[in-house]
Amino acid sequence: MPKDTGRQVVASNRKARHDYVIEDVFEAGIVLSGTEVKALRQGRASLVDGFVLVDRGEAWLENVYVPEYSQGTWTNHAPRRKRKLLLHRSEIDRLEARTREKGQTIIPLQLYFLDGRAKVEIALARGKREYDKRQTLRERQDNMEAQRAMRHRELT
User: Fold this and answer.
1) Which of 23, 24, 26, 54 is nearest to 120 (CA)?
2) What is the Cα–Cα distance from 119 to 49, expressed in whole angstroms?
3) Residue 123 in domain
4) What is the pLDDT of residues 73-96, one digit of tens each?
5) Domain limits for position 83
6) Considering the domain boundaries, does residue 60 fall inside one?
7) pTM as predicted
8) What is the count of structural domains for the chain?
9) Measured in whole angstroms, how far is the alpha carbon of residue 53 from the centre of its chain?
């Protein structure tokens, strides 16, 4: 009998889609200690400053904040430690090759539990310039105004 079914989101990096152009998305497992899993199940984590590095053929999630477990003892984890990501060799090689290009980086988008297992959604991304951010915001506002006008037109 399965414990948890479905996708239970723990943390999202909402600013990532504003600051970066997302080019490719991957799902990866995370190597966690017991107190980290318990802290995540309480729904506390922050992906804001997080990034992924590929080092010696392994992917590492760095600078992601998972607070210490409140009922933990001396076995508690460090809040901002490096965490290994579980990806296929071909995915790691592709990420490593693409990040060598100028302006490419790997960022975490979402941290969640999928059928009881901790997963992280990472994205291969390129940083946006300030004028790109303004243009995206302007396009979103124009679309909202158009939708509003269409609704108003249907009502009259």
Assistant:
1) 26
2) 18
3) yes
4) 677 766 778 989 999 999 999 999
5) 7-128
6) yes
7) 0.75
8) 1
9) 14
